[in-house]
Structures are given as C-alpha cells and as structure tokens.
C-alpha cells in the first residue's frame, strides 16, 4: 500500500480547495478520463470535510471542536479510497461485473432524487466542483461498489461452499438434538412466550424469555415452521443482486405485498433438527426443544461465514492507481429539493439494509445514523451494523474487524467523534462488561478497557458528559445493580461510581 506524505496531501487538498468552489465542470467527451490515487485522496478529503462540519460536537464538551486533520490522518483517508477501489476491482476480477458509467450515472441520479438532506448533498457536489465525472467516481462509486460486492459475496458458494458442506456433513453425521452443542461454532437457546403485553419485563433465570404479541408470535411460528419444509426455498441465490428491489430479503422478512401464511404452532416438530438455513453471515439449523400453545423453547447451532472484510484482506486483487470510465457523457443530476424530510411522514430507506434486528442501539452523528448490535432470528446475536446517510440516501455497513462480540440490550453514546457501545448480553444467559469505540470516519473499532469496569450487565443506561460515559444500573439476569462506572475514552480507563446514597438497584430505567 502506497501512502502519500502529509505534506503532499495537504498541498493537493489546499490546491483543490482553492479552486473547487469556482471551477466549472469540464466539457464531457467520449474519451476516458482518469483520476490518480492522489486526485482521489484529495477529493475524499473534501468529502470528509463536509461530513465533519455536520458532525455533532456535544454541547457538554467545553473544548473546541478539532479540525478534520486532527481526527483523521492522511493515511486513513487514503485507506478509504483504496478500499472502494479494491471493492471495484473485486467486482471485475471475481464476478466479471465491472462498474459501468451507466451504473454510476444511475447512482448519482438516485442520490439526487431520493436525498433526505438536499442542502448537504449540494455541499458535497460543490466540494467536488459540481463535476459529474468526479461525483460519479468519488461519491457514487464508493457507495455502489460496497453495496454490490457485499451482495455478490454473501451467497457465493465459491467462498462459502466448503463451510456449507461441513455444516451439511455435521448435520447428516451427528445431527441430533442431544449433540447440537458439539456442532458448529455457536450454540444458543431462546424462549419465546406469546403475550399481548409485549412490554412485560423478561423473566429472570437460566432461560430468559422474549415476549411476543399475537401478531409477532404468528409471524415467528410461520418462519420457524418454514425451516422444516424443504420446499420453502431459500432467500439467497435467486436473482441478480445488482437489482436490490427484486432481491428477496436476506433477513427472511416478507417484502411489501407478500403474504405471510401463518403456520399453526402444532406444525412445529419437537426434538428434530431443521434443514440447513443460510443468511448473510452464517449457516444454521434449529430445533424445538419444547412447546405449548403460548411457549416455545428453541435451540440454534450456527456455522459462521468468513466476513467480507477478512476475505477482502486475503483476496488477490491489486488496487489500481487509477480507474478509467470509457465512453461516458456524464450529466450533473438535479437535486430534488422536494424530497427532503417532511414533518410527520415516513420514507423507506433503500436496500440492502443491515439485517432486521431488535435490542440494538442507534446514535445520530449529525450526518449519519449508526445502528449496531442486537438480536436477529434464532440465536443470532449480532456484532454488525450500518451507517445510514440521509443526504445520499445510502447505507454503509460497519466493519466487523476488532468489533465487540455480538450482543443485545447494550448501550451506545455519541462523543462527537466516536460511538461508544458497552455491556449487553450475547445469549440471554451471560452478561458482558466489554465494549468498543467506533470511529465512523475511519470505519474502525477500538476495544474499551475492562480494568476496573463495572460488572457485566444489560438493560442499564449510559450518558455522555462531554468527556466521560457514565453507565449505571441494569441486571445480570439474576440480580439488579445500583452500581456503575465512569469511562474516560481519552485515558481508556474506568472509575467506579459511588453507592453511597445511590438509588435502589433497578434495570430498564
């Protein structure tokens, strides 16, 4: 990997910044244009400047908001450029689907038509000189390449076929409920209870319960029953992933207009392993351990797929210094000011989105919403997430490299430059005192210290003071806490909160 020096980046960026606001888009020709790596890095710096200006600096923090160059190094900006070029190259090398000029134009048009923050999109276009070629290459290409490479990778049996074969062999050879704990990479048990009071507190003990109202219960039973039906089909391997609207939901949820046939609880076999299932991150099978008319106890065994980030790190695809787009007459799209956010209205976010989930967290940075963690179907506690950018109406998945382990019912705070997540449960049985700091500018994680950290817990609370995160209360499934801790990200250290005159122990406060 080639790194430009700080001085070179600064000079390129300064030169660009002085001319970007006054330059006119060059006349479009059929001749290929190219951007060098240095060009792309300078444009990426301009994009990051726009986002950084809009990032919320908490009013509780008395110190002035630092400059972008103080929080994001030249090498980190260059790394973002190399990542999207590597994704583009992988689409060409492994799936023979290089991104075309027509796709980039369509992505620009989509952003312009569906933006929820037209003012910010105008700023981004202006930062790129209102040059449609540069906008296509440096704003549209990163989002499109990430979306497509994830979609193609998720169900490509060249990369996951060996794991699938192992899972199928395990199920055929040792596939009994009694031996489930010895199969796969992960085993969990979950109990579901039908209750019209969906807000009722979960019971405490060895097998915590998830309360479901009547409608959600019926949907859950229908989905579980389909796992024992070989004719039910599978959501993957069906259509071109480049056409997101036609692609079935990776989470298994019915799309708009699809009818969900409710399967009666009686159709669920007890003590039998389901057929092998697949979703974006794993192969898995379930078994119903026990059931009544309003109660289900489900066991899940999973075989985790290699993450896209891990595969890309090993993939033998060189990062090109420049990428030409031939025969393109790019047009600067008109940004639709009428499609911004209107009070008391809803608009769907585009596919592909992160897997559907509950028990996750969300923070608003000023330019993006970051969601992370949570629980998704049948024992899958997630360490994945996504950043939704309303100005470009697009999702970017958060890195799993060095991310905390999967969990639900944790907390998250926004510091002005990082999201800090902490605590939660990875299985509804054990409770964590670990966490991580996520930097959306660099898409990177740093673990929080466990030295002097509070005891593991979930259903606690957390606030950001401007310099520290304070967590307090919660439960470990068998007891409740009136303890907590103050976490200082600057020193990566914890200080216990006093219990003198503290409120009585509690959770979900």
In short:
Helices cover 28% and strands 17% of the residues. With 509 residues, the chain is an alpha+beta fold.
What are the salient characteristics of this protein?
disordered N terminus, single chain, 10 helices, 17 strands, five-stranded mixed β-sheet, four-stranded antiparallel β-sheet, alpha+beta, globular, 509 residues
3D architecture notes:
With about 500 residues, the chain is of the alpha+beta class. Helix content is about 30%, strand content about 15%. The strands form four sheets. The chain has a five-stranded mixed beta sheet with strand order 2-1-5-4-3. A four-stranded antiparallel beta sheet has the order 6-7-8-9. It has a four-stranded antiparallel beta sheet with strand order 10-11-12-13, with no helix packed on it. Strand 4 and strand 5 form a beta hairpin. Helix 2 (about 35-55) packs across helix 4, helix 2 packs across helix 7 and helix 5 (about 100-115) packs across helix 7 (about 130-155). The longest helix is centred in the N-terminal third of the chain and has 23 residues, at about 130-155. The protein is globular and about 65 Å long. The two termini are about 50 Å apart. Residues about 1-15, about 15-25, about 200-205 and about 235-265 have low confidence and may be disordered.
Topology of helices and strands:
Elements: H1 6-20, H2 37-54, H3 68-71, H4 74-95, H5 101-114, H6 118-127, H7 132-154, H8 157-174, E1 186-194, E2 209-212, H9 214-226, E3 277-278, E4 282-292, E5 295-304, H10 308-314, E6 361-364, E7 369-372, E8 385-389, E9 394-397, E10 411-414, E11 419-422, E12 435-439, E13 444-447, E14 461-464, E15 469-472, E16 484-488, E17 493-496
Parallel strand pairs: 1-2
Antiparallel strand pairs: 1-5, 3-4, 4-5, 6-7, 7-8, 8-9, 10-11, 11-12, 12-13, 14-15, 15-16, 16-17
Helix pairs in contact: 1-2, 2-4, 2-6, 2-7, 4-7, 5-7
């Amino acid at each position: 990997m080639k790194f430009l020096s700080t001085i070179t980046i600064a000079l390129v960026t300064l030169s660009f910044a002085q001319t970007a606001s006054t330059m006119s888009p060059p006349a479009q020709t059929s001749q290929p244009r190219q951007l060098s790596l240095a060009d792309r890095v300078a444009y990426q710096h301009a994009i990051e400047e726009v986002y950084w200006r809009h990032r919320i600096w908490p009013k509780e923090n008395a110190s002035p908001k630092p400059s972008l160059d103080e929080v994001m190094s030249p090498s980190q900006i260059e790394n973002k450029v190399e990542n999207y070029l590597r994704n583009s190259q992988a689409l060409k090398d492994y799936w023979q689907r290089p991104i075309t000029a027509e796709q980039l134009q369509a992505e620009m048009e989509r952003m312009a038509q569906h933006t929820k923050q037209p003012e910010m999109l105008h700023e981004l276009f202006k930062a790129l000189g209102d040059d449609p070629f540069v906008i296509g290459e440096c704003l549209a290409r990163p989002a499109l390449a990430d979306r497509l490479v994830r979609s193609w990778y998720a169900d490509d049996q060249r990369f996951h076929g060996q794991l699938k074969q192992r899972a199928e062999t395990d199920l055929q050879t040792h596939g009994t409920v009694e031996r489930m704990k010895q199969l796969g990479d992960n085993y969990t048990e979950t109990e579901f209870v039908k209750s019209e009071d969906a807000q009722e507190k979960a019971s405490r003990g060895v097998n915590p319960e998830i309360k479901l109202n009547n409608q959600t219960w019926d949907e859950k039973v229908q989905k579980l029953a389909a796992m024992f039906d070989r004719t039910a089909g599978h959501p993957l391997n069906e259509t071109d992933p480049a056409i997101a609207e036609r692609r079935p939901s990776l989470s298994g949820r019915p799309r708009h207009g699809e009818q969900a046939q409710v399967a009666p609880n009686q159709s669920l076999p007890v003590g039998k392993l389901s057929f092998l299932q697949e979703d974006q991150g794993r192969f898995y099978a379930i078994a119903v351990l026990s059931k009544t008319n309003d109660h289900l106890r489900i066991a899940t065994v999973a075989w985790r797929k290699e993450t896209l980030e891990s595969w890309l790190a090993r993939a033998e695809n060189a990062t090109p210094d420049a990428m030409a787009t031939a025969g393109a007459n790019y047009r600067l799209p008109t940004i639709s000011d009428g499609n911004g956010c209107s009070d008391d209205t809803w608009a769907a976010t585009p596919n592909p989105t992160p897997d559907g989930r509950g028990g996750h967290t969300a923070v608003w940075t000023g330019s993006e919403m970051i969601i992370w963690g949570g629980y998704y179907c049948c024992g899958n506690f997630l360490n994945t997430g996504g950043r939704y950018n309303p100005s470009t109406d697009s999702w970017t998945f958060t890195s799993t490299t060095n991310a905390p382990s999967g969990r639900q019912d944790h907390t998250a705070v926004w510091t002005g430059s990082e999201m800090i997540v902490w605590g939660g449960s990875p299985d509804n049985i054990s409770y964590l005192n670990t966490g991580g700091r996520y930097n959306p500018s660099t898409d990177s994680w740093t673990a929080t210290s466990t030295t002097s950290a509070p005891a593991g817990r979930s259903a606690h609370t957390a606030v950001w003071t401007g310099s520290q995160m304070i967590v307090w209360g919660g439960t470990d499934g068998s007891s409740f806490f009136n303890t907590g801790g103050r976490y200082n990200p600057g020193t990566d250290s914890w200080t216990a909160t006093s219990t003198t005159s503290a409120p009585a122990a509690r959770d979900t406060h």
